[in-house]
Automatic annotation (TrEMBL):
Record key words, sorted: Hydrolase
Taxonomy, superkingdom: Bacteria
InterPro entries associated with the record: NUDIX_hydrolase-like_dom_sf, NUDIX_hydrolase_dom
Cofactor: Mg(2+)
Pfam families cross-referenced by the UniProt entry: NUDIX
Species annotation: Fructobacillus durionis
Domain Nudix hydrolase: 18-153
SUPFAM superfamilies: Nudix
Molecular-function GO terms, alphabetical: hydrolase activity
Protein name in UniProt: ADP-ribose pyrophosphatase YjhB, NUDIX family
Residue spans crossing the bilayer: none
Length: 171
């Protein structure tokens, strides 16, 4: 099995600090009262947004479309950018120093696609479902919880993307 981009880069640089870009998507249900969220394979608690790290040559928009297909089996297209966040982690769960620049996008199903095809990949994503936003779902890390709040407040109030610079920590 071919290693992913991060594994290939880590094999070259070890635990030294690296910057990675990621993209995630927000897909609303038809009633606009629930968001598609995933139970992640790497976290016992909370939800995450479908998405992942960019591969070399990906645009953020291509990455979110690819990741949605891989993790949920849904074909989506980007509607708009929601925001961008940075997160510095001096020691992630693999023992590596990492800064992640994450870009969020609102997505919609491509014409002709339905949520009937929804299916978790079973590895990275254990399950995937539309989760009501009231009360707020518990996300898998505090940074994702803050992002969810921004999506549900700032992005619902206007079309301007937000920027979030997170403090250095290890969540």
């Amino acid at each position: 099995m071919e290693q992913n981009y991060i594994a290939r880069m880590r094999a070259k640089v070890g635990h030294e600090g690296m910057i990675f870009n990621s993209a995630f998507g927000v897909l609303w249900n038809e009633a606009h009262d629930a968001i598609l969220l995933e139970k992640r394979g790497d976290s016992a608690v909370g939800y995450g947004f479908p998405g992942g790290f960019l591969e070399y040559g990906d645009s953020p928009m291509q990455a979110v479309v690819r990741e949605f297909k891989e993790e949920t089996n849904l074909d989506v297209e980007v509607v708009r950018m929601l925001g961008m966040a940075t997160h510095v982690n001096p020691k992630n769960s693999w023992g590596d120093a990492q800064e992640t620049i994450s870009m969020g996008f609102e997505v919609k199903l491509v014409e002709g696609a339905t949520a009937d095809h929804l299916k978790a990949d079973g590895t990275e994503t254990l399950s995937v479902e539309f989760v009501p936003v009231n009360p707020r779902p518990k996300m898998f890390v505090p940074a994702a919880q803050d992002t969810l709040e921004r999506v549900l407040t700032i992005n619902e109030e206007n079309e301007q993307p937000w920027l979030r610079e997170a403090a250095k920590n290890d969540d």
